[in-house]
Amino acid sequence: MDDLARFCCLNPDCPDHGKRGHGNLTVPMRYGPNKARRLLRCSTCKARFSERKGTPLFDARLPADKAASVLAHVAEGVGTRKTARLVGVHRHTVTRYVRRAGGHAERLHDDLVAFSPGDE
Ligand SMILES: [Zn+2]
């Protein structure tokens, strides 16, 4: 059984949009290298999407460990050129991943703030 508690429907028009661990998601198929990536399906709205959609790794061409390493270096304050040398990627690649992750962090922030309880 796949653990889908971290995932939620990404269709903004779905009544169950954004509800994590709601039980509305299934895994109709796997894809990618070694079939390691899951395609998720929402039983409420019938939408299908990659488990990577909405993450900095979606459509990323670097292996996940390398992409994570790039972001870890940058998060520690290592500069773009230095990160590129240490991880062994082009500095433009570092810039692209940082932009992607930055945008993701911003959306995650908005998501969390939107669901935060009020002061009362
Ligand atoms: Zn849905």
Describe the structure.
Helix 1 (64-75) packs antiparallel against helix 2, helix 1 crosses helix 3 and helix 2 crosses helix 3. The mean pLDDT is 80. With 120 residues, this protein is α+β, with helices and mostly antiparallel strands. Helices cover 37% and strands 13% of the residues. It has three helices and three strands, in the order βββααα. Strands 1-2-3 form a three-stranded antiparallel beta sheet, with no helix packed on it. It has helices at 64-75, 80-87, 91-114; strands at residues 25-31, 37-42, 48-50. The chain has two domains: 1-53; 64-114. Bound molecules: zinc ion (ZN). Zinc ion (ZN) binds at residues 9, 11, 14, 16, 42, 44-45, 47. Residues 9, 11, 14, 16, 42, 44-45, 47 line the site of zinc ion.
Short characterization:
This protein is of the alpha+beta class.
Straight-line distance between termini: 40 Å
Low-confidence stretches: none
Main beta sheet: strand number and arrangement? Answer: 3 strands, antiparallel
Q: Structural class, judged by helices and strands?
A: alpha+beta
Strand content: 5-15%
Helix content: 25-40%
Mean pLDDT comes to 80
Number of strands: 3
Could you give the order of strands across the largest sheet? 1-2-3
How many domain regions?
2
The topology string of helices and strands comes to: EEEHHH
Bound molecules: zinc ion
What is the rounded Rg?
17 Å
Shape: globular
Discrete helix count:
3
